């Protein structure tokens, strides 16, 4: 077997299962704030489009996807990120993917040149776990960039040495971030674009939470938008990852896309042809319907807004927790005086309140003795408003007893 498989870390949910093994939860219905799976209803019109196109199962799809799908995506992307008209060509700049998870993983396999002496992939810390596995299986070394309260929960590019930038072949950005909800501001993205040009690396910007935000007048900025503003309308070295999972509440549809640098996408298409990951035709049709509609996305944001307001009303006086810039996560800090760390909190609240959260340190790695997730908790407000409120009340009762 491939020895690099042994380098893969256990997934956080496996570690949580171990942490909670043998614990008897309180006798009340489970509330899980642990899993980042959207729970709002999937829009009927998307499911109808899927049903209406079942005959598409009779054909092999193209890896490149249909013109109609890539056209719908090009229009959405151009409008959402105010890209110069015509700069996104559906033939060259877009590829459908079966959810961004597979694409984020596969991308590193296609990009990394193992013949270079020290291939490195930079990523935020804490981070979406796929980035690390992708790096390890691509034969690259993951380099973790701490995202702490001090850095505004975004990577501090100034802290990276010139040598590391030289070894860097790929950097994963995650904006809005999982688990922090932080949005990387335009200025830092511009700085990264300059570094990418100087040190010749690729930027993979995971923007799958870009449509879950609170201020309708101020949507999260994206990599392509900043590149275009900086005059890089070929989107050289830039690739963005977008998904319908969170935007349209269809995580099971497995539908997203990547867009950007035409040369990179052309090679990635070659890779994908061999990898065999074409999107099924009915899913393509359902995805066209989803990308063409904004009303359901607006309604979705409204539901999250209600939940954040209600939950923060209860939790903010009790813990270090703020409304994130975007996403559906709270990234709460624990007070040292509570006598609880992120693991003991997770175990104890499960025992006393039958509520699940994710210990922050399970989403981060220790670097130079610092784990940026230590004594933090990730809580996903994906359940119904009532359940999220009940979850917050259980945390309140739990903390009051400490
Ligand atoms: C940061 C981040 N990127 C990518 C994904 C993958 O989403 P999907 O494969 O459903 O598009 C997730 C899912 O939770 C995520 O949190």
Task: Write up this protein.
The chain is of the alpha/beta class. It is built from 14 helices and twelve strands. β3, α5 and β4 form a beta-alpha-beta unit. The longest helix has 21 residues. The protein is globular and about 60 Å long. The site of pyridoxal-5'-phosphate has 13 residues, from α4.
Essential attributes:
402 residues, alpha/beta, seven-stranded mixed sheet, three-stranded antiparallel sheet, 12 strands, 39% helix, binds pyridoxal-5'-phosphate
Sketch the major β-sheet: 7 strands, mixed
Low-confidence stretches: none
Envelope shape: globular
**From the alpha-carbon coordinates, what is the Rg to the nearest angstrom?**
21 Å
Strand order of the largest sheet: 2-8-7-6-5-3-4
Structural class: alpha/beta
Provide mean pLDDT, rounded: 97
H/I helix tally: 14
Distance between the termini: 48 Å
Q: Helices and strands, in N-to-C order? A: HEHHEHEHEHEHEHEHEHHHEHEEEH
Ligand names: pyridoxal-5'-phosphate
Which strand-content bin applies to the residues?
5-15%
- What share of residues is helical? 25-40%
Number of strands: 12
Summarize the entry for a quick read:
With 402 residues, the chain is of the alpha/beta class. The chain is 39% helix and 14% strand.
Topology, please?
Elements: H1 12-19, E1 31-32, H2 44-52, H3 67-80, E2 94-97, H4 100-111, E3 120-125, H5 130-137, E4 141-146, H6 162-167, E5 168-174, H7 186-199, E6 202-206, H8 223-229, E7 238-243, H9 244-247, E8 256-260, H10 262-275, H11 281-291, H12 295-315, E9 329-333, H13 342-353, E10 355-356, E11 358-359, E12 376-380, H14 385-400
Helix pairs in contact: 2-11, 3-11, 4-5, 4-10, 12-14
The structure holds pyridoxal-5'-phosphate.
């Amino acid at each position: 077997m491939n020895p690099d498989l042994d380098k893969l870390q256990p997934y956080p949910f496996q570690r949580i299962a171990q942490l909670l093994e043998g614990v008897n939860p309180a006798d009340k219905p489970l509330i899980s704030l642990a899993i980042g799976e959207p729970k709002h209803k999937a829009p009927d019109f998307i499911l109808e489009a899927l049903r209406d196109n079942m005959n598409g199962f009779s054909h092999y799809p193209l890896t490149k996807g249909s013109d109609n799908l890539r056209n719908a995506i090009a229009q959405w992307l151009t409008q959402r990120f105010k890209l110069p008209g015509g700069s996104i060509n559906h033939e060259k700049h877009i590829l459908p993917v079966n959810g961004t998870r597979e694409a984020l993983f596969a991308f590193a396999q296609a990009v990394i040149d193992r013949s270079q002496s020290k291939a490195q992939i930079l990523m935020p810390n804490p981070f979406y776990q796929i980035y690390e596995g992708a790096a390890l299986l691509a034969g690259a070394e993951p380099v973790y960039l701490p995202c702490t309260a001090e850095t505004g929960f975004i990577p501090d590019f100034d802290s990276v040495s010139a040598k590391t930038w030289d070894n860097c072949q790929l950097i994963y950005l995650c904006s809005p971030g999982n688990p922090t909800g932080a949005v990387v501001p335009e200025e830092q993205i511009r700085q990264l674009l300059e570094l990418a040009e100087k040190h010749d690396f690729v930027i993979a910007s995971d923007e799958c939470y870009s449509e879950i935000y609170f201020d309708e007048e101020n949507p999260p900025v994206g990599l392509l938008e900043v590149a275009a503003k900086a005059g890089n309308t070929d989107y050289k070295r830039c690739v963005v990852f977008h998904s319908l999972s969170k935007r349209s509440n269809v995580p099971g549809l497995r539908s997203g896309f990547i867009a950007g640098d035409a040369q990179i996408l052309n090679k990635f298409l070659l890779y994908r042809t061999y990898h065999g990951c074409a999107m099924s035709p009915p899913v393509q049709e359902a995805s066209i319907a989803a990308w063409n509609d904004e009303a359901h996305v607006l309604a979705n944001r409204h539901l999250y807004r209600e939940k954040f307001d209600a939950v923060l009303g209860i939790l903010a006086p009790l813990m270090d927790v703020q409304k994130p810039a975007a996403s559906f996560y709270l990234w709460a800090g624990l007070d040292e005086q509570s006598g609880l760390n992120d693991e003991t909190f997770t175990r104890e609240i499960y025992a006393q309140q039958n509520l699940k959260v994710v210990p922050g340190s399970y989403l981060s790695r220790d670097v130079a003795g610092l784990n940026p997730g230590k004594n933090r908790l990730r809580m996903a407000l994906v359940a119904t408003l009532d359940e999220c409120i009940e979850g917050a009340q259980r945390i309140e009762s739990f903390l009051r007893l400490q």
